[in-house]
Amino acid sequence: MKAGLGTAAFGTTTSPADAFKVLNAYVAMGGRIIDTANNYAFWAGSGGESERTIGEWLKTVDRNSVDIHTKIGAFPLDGQDFSKSEGLSRQAIDTAIAASLTRLGTDYIDVLYAHVDDLNTPLEETWTVLTEYVRKGVVKKLGISNYTLARLSDLCVLIERQELTPISYAQYRYTVIPPKDDADFGEQVCLTDDIKSLLQQANPDIILVAYSPLLEGAFEHRGKLPAEYDTTANERYVLELRAESDMTLLSPSALVLRKIANEGILPLCMTSKVSRLKENFSLVKQLK
Q1: Any idea what DSSP says for residue 14?
Q2: Distance from the Cα of residue 74 to its chain's centroid
Q3: Start and end of every NADP-dependent oxidoreductase domain (predicted)?
Q4: Which of 65, 148, 153, 243 has a CA 20 to 30 Å removed from the CA of 206?
Q5: Could you tell me the residue range of the domain that residue 155 belongs to?
Q6: Known catalytic membership, residue 40
Q7: Residue 1's pLDDT is what?
């Protein structure tokens, strides 16, 4: 299936019992990529709940049947916001990986992301340490999320010059409509054509991942576009999408996920209900 399961709410606003149902349904539909982070979901709990819930679920399945994607570097040390995050220094990475492995109940991570850029730590230090974990087999592949074009460019040069582990996955905010030019998403960075081009030049086999593709239900018939996306052109697009939905008897969200997947980008979708999961993934599960 060309879509990943987002699990940010698992263990907090989505109960472990409901999370297990969604996870089982996703795997039964042919899904494999389970996306989480060590700081999920500090805004609804204390952080680590998602990994812990997935870890309990992993005890009930074949560990090798799924790919666990997790992220480090953005766990708030004060439990409040990203202004005081754990960062990506050698010590921070060692501590974060050990904690994630414990919560997940596994001895390896399929894909480990640098969740947000750490401007206080040299890129060389961060990527050298991450490469060491790949060479030890603790981490299979590396990814980045929310890196700006400038820093990403520096990182790609560093990786090539020092023959470090390449970036295999890149996760950015992305959907089928563009945000306003002045939209501010805080730590989140939107995927742009320049970022996409740079990543694909650095690694032609890279997998681009889109988070928040459904804008929390904004495409549905009763949804409303967030202020950051509220433009005349986007409103027109959504109306056309809903008309297509009415004609095909498919949900607008399912159409959005298929459109993104058809671009060669892997969309992440999060839900607490099996019925919604099946509806949203009804089209992408058919893509090979």
Answers
A1: B
A2: 13
A3: 4-284
A4: 65
A5: 4-217+252-286
A6: yes
A7: 76
210 in a structural domain: yes
Res 288 pLDDT > 80: no
Domain assignment of residue 237, yes or no: no
Do you know the residue count of the chain? 288
For the record, the structure tokens of 21 come out as: 């149902």
Nearest to 227 by CA among 185, 255, 268, 257: 185
Q: Where are the beta strands (DSSP E) in 57-100?
A: 67-72
Q: Are 174 and 195 in contact (CB under 8 A)?
A: no
User: Per-residue pLDDT tens for 66-110?
Assistant: 999 999 999 998 877 777 899 999 999 999 999 999 999 999 999
Tell me if 222 is assigned to some domain.
Answer: no
Rg (C-alpha) for the chain, rounded Å, is: 18
Identified catalytic residue from 26, 40, 169, 229:
40
DSSP bridge pairs for 139 = 109
Element (H, E) at 144: strand 139-145
Residue 18: CATH number of its domain? 3.20.20.100
pLDDT tens sequence across 161-219 = 999 999 999 999 999 999 999 999 999 999 999 999 999 999 999 999 999 999 999 99
The DSSP element (H or E) to which 51 belongs, if any, is: helix 49-58
d(CA 23, CA 18): 9
Q: Can you list the positions of beta strands (E) in 52-206?
A: 67-72, 109-114, 139-145, 167-173
Is residue 16 in a domain? yes
